[in-house]
Amino acid sequence: MSIHIEAKQGEIADKILLPGDPLRAKFIAENFLEDAVCFNHVRNMFGYTGTYKGQRISVMGTGMGMPSISIYTRELIVDYGVKKLIRVGTAGSVNTDVHVRELVLAQAAATNSNIIRNDWPEYDFPQIASFDLLDKAYHIAKDMNITTHVGSVLSSDVFYSSMPERNMALGKLGVHAIEMEAAALYYLAAQHGVEALGIMTISDSLVHPEEDTTAEERQTTFTDMMKVGLETLIAD
Q1: Is 135 assigned a catalytic role?
Q2: Which residue in 14, 79, 204, 224 is the catalytic one?
Q3: Cβ distance 143 to 185 under 8 Å?
Q4: 67-84 confidence digits (pLDDT tens)
Q5: Residue 5 and residue 44 in contact, taking contact as beta carbons nearer than 8 Å
Q6: Which of 17, 70, 94, 219 is deepest in the core (most CB within 10 A)?
Q7: CA angle, corner 46, sides to 32 and 110, nearest 5?
Q8: Could you read off the pLDDT of 8-59 as tens digits, one per residue?
Q9: pLDDT > 90? residue 183
């Protein structure tokens, strides 16, 4: 048992999906995993372990933002021995070529946070995904005929930005979307020598404001990223 996770040793698989929303974790467990058992209720950050196509898989919410995902990711890696972690969450497009409901595989994550600079003030330490997971996810999504973009995202500390025009300008530099967790996930994976990937569904767009989704849709209908994430975790 760790500080924020009540699971006993052995109750969490070494492969895990990490949605931000704990109710999305519940949805994944109920709709994709067999014989799923809840291993965490602390702070209502639900976590489950079951099987997917015969392989043992876990799923757990992480909350919103880099401080929150950092807490759960570190405990999952250090206290429970998780080796492969895939974030499945939402993001906002800042790129005219990236539309609502399409997927983004975060090859790299820029950030406006100091969470990494606090450790490395003299470097601009790059946050990158595991190439093996990225490569597998890309080909799995392609085989599923899912519209998928591979490239960089911005992991922001701020949801309600006071300078959205600056964020939108990043789209002209090839940044696909803005989200709030991938950079911290990638940094922790690098620290501990494990594999991590961020798979995001575009839930809204700063460049196509007419494209939008409801909270319920974001929780229960963005299943493409869930399927790609699960298939990636079990791929040889």
Answers
A1: no
A2: 204
A3: no
A4: 999 999 999 999 999 999
A5: no
A6: 17
A7: 85
A8: 999 999 999 999 999 999 999 999 999 999 999 999 999 999 999 999 999 9
A9: yes
pTM comes to 0.95
Look at residue 14 and give its three-state secondary structure.
coil
Burial class (CB in 10 A: 0-12, 13-18, 19+), 49: buried
Helix (H, G, I), strand (E, B) or coil at 222: coil
* Distance of alpha carbon 55 from the chain centroid: 20
The pLDDT, as a whole number, for residue 214 is 78
182 in Cβ contact with 153 (< 8 Å): yes
User: Distance between CA atoms of 134 and 127, rounded to whole angstroms?
Assistant: 14
* Share in percent of the chain as helix, strand, coil (round to 5): 35, 30, 40
**Position 168 pLDDT exceeds 90:** no
Could you tell me which residues come within 8 angstroms of residue 235 by beta carbon, excluding any fewer than 6 positions away? Answer: 136, 140
